[in-house]
Each structure stands twice: as structure tokens, then as C-alpha cells.
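Teaching assistant's notes for section 4

Start the section by putting this record on the projector. Ask students to predict, before seeing the second block, whether Ribosome-recycling factor will look compact or extended. Collect guesses on the board.
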Amino acid sequence: MSDDFILDTDDLERRMEGAMASLRTEFASLRTGRASASMLEPVQVEAYGQMTPINQVGTVNVPEPRMVTVNVWDKSLVNKVEKAIRESGLGINPQMNGTIIMLPIPELNEERRRELGKVAGQYAESARVAIRNVRRDGMDQIKKAKADGMSEDDQKFWESAVQETTDKFIAMVDEALEHKQAEIMQV
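Reveal the predicted structure now:
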């Protein structure tokens, strides 16, 4: 068994990439003072008896830098969409115009920018934790193989491969956080 052990590093990388994808989605939902259709992605609307993403009940557009519009397809859902946006915690006050809901994006004040920077930091820390959990899984597999007779050289090789991958993804998280915080603080 000792010579046959091959750690599935592709699986570990795929799982770490999943943590990065989740982080990118969370960062996209953070408001930076500029309009973005992705800021509405986390908003769910109660439609047809179940919670539905907002982009499945209407068209989300960004007609100008400080305005997002949602053109709701079903007139009976307009009020529910408006209520979901109002209660989403995005700090946006929707304005109705028939089936179109306009969302003017207000300027962020300094205090709100700092809060958003902290939230971005929390998202990044969650991603780091997820990446470290994947690393731990890989290390556990190596320890199990060591107990089954893997050589110490092989153990060191696989441990360094897992650590290298972990370091690469942690650096990606740090870089993404730095970029997002700079974007948030930009006036």
C-alpha cells in the first residue's frame, strides 16, 4: 500500500476553489457605492409558494452608474419584490414605477464604508477557514496512509504539496480582500 498512495490534489484544489467562488459571490453582494446587478443576488423573493432569487422573477439592469432597476415580469409579485429588497439589509430604498422597481444607490458615508470593510474581512476569514478545513482533510488522508506504511519521504512530499496549495489559495483570499477593501474605501 505504501507505494500506491496518491493524494487527490485535484479534489483538494477543486474544494478550495469552491471556497474562493463563494467568497467572490459574497464580495459581489457588498455595495461599494456603484450600481451592480450582482448586489441583488442574495435577495430572495417569496414567489409562487417558495423562496426564489430575484433574477428569476424579473430582469435586473444597471441603466446608469448609481441606479439599478428590476423589471418584474409578474405584476402580482411587484410588491413582494419591493418588500424583499427593502428588508434585505442592503440599505437601499426602492422606488416603484409600474412593474419597474428603481433602486437609487446612495453615496456611502465613511462609517458605512468601514462597516462594509469589516464585513468583507469576515467573509475573507470564512473563506480562509474553509480552505484550512480542506487542508486538514488532506493532512488526515496523509496521516492515515502513514499509519498504513507510507514512507516518511512520501509523507513529507504530500504534506508539502498540500501546504503549497493551501498557501496559494490563502494568498488569493488575501489579495481579493485587499482589492475589495480598496474598492469599498474609494470615494
